[in-house]
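Consider the following input, taken from an annotated entry for Oligosaccharide translocase (Liquorilactobacillus cacaonum DSM 21116).
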Amino acid sequence: MNVIRNYLYNAGYQLLLVILPLVSITYVSRVLTNTGVGLNAYTNSIITYFVLFGSLGINLYGNRQIAYLRENQLEMSKAFWELVILRILAVLIAFVAFFVYLPFSKNPMLMFFQSLNLLAVIFDISWFYMGIEDFKKTVTRNTLVKILSLAAIFIFVKSKNDLGLYVIILGMGTFLGNLTFWPFIKDLIVKIPYKQLHPFRHLRPSIALFIPQVAISVYAVLNKTMLGKMTGTVNSGYYNNADTLIKTVLAVATATGTVMLPHVANAFANGEKKRINQMLYDSFDFISFLTVAMMFGIAGLSLNLGTLVFGSGFEPVGMAVLLESPVIILIGWSNAIGTQFLLPTNRTREYTASVIIGAIVNIVLNFPLIYFWGLVGAMLATVISEVCVTGYQLWTIRKTVSYRKLFQNFWKYLVAGLVMFIPIFKINNTVNSTIVSILLEVVLGIVVYFVMILLLRPTIVNKARDILNKRKK
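Applying the prediction step yields:
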């Protein structure tokens, strides 16, 4: 039950992190227009590279390392302070590189405002709370800051000339949100004399996880950068908005990775191999159940979402969402295998190889596909790269797990998803789309999907019933 509670906390938090920007971008897309949204997406994609270097893979490594050591407060405290020092040094180096780059930027003032996101990295210790599986603090304390940031956007961003102010508000939201993690740390760790700390012992394993994060960022961020360079920043905005809609849906599924990583890591430290495999089967099945419904649901609604959510001038977003929707399943699966299985069981090499393959495929395909098809080409490159990542990860675990157990219910979810998709897609492209009609279509889709699930009776139905019976007792 503790895992379920943590999942709900983290799913809610991850959803919040995506929904609040989605709500704000729905507003600012109309205020800043597609030009302003595109400039923000483009400059944010640039600062993301510096943020990535400053983070140095510590979020994943720190989460896992704290999970390994959480039963020994002294060793856990040493690891915490060593990782904090290592991150500070990495961010300082990233800032030096950033200020070298700044004079050559086309938008130096906007880029300077974006650097608030880099400063915020120093104070991000969310990885510690995730390692001890205390997700409540990371959710409740940060939520208020995010809501205040959203309120500030509505109050102060009033015209297309307020783009810089919008970037500052977003950066300050991240910065203040990270500060909220610190007041509670004194009750969880002990002070360690500086002479006993050896931060560089974590450098090599952090870099081992930094490399796959670099690769992930390539096909998460590079598309926006390349679209901006090759076709104009407006297309960067279209890509960013479509990707935001997809990530909003995906957040519910990928939240399991953050929750399960420390849980599996702790089981691995205790040598519970059979339990680890069973956790993968259960998690993979649950993610398949969610992501199939999410993919067909958003695909059915997609074509009218651009104009409805973001306003006039964002029509291309709808087709982009439709094309990108398969990544919901693919990323869900790679999250289950990579983040919940390969990383916590110390199979970092296979995880790294998978995302590097995806990054290489993405880069190679981006040039011809963006050149010939622009935004559509970028979406196709994204989907193909995710196919390669997930496919390679499945191949690496072929001798460890049973494919039959992984996919035993998938065909049932697929049938339920297709039956749901047909009426939603037809209705969405027949009637004039409004907020009310979209909500009704979402309700219809949920009802159809769950009715089909009850008729097909995958094993998740019995597991859900068992959980409910335990709670009643």
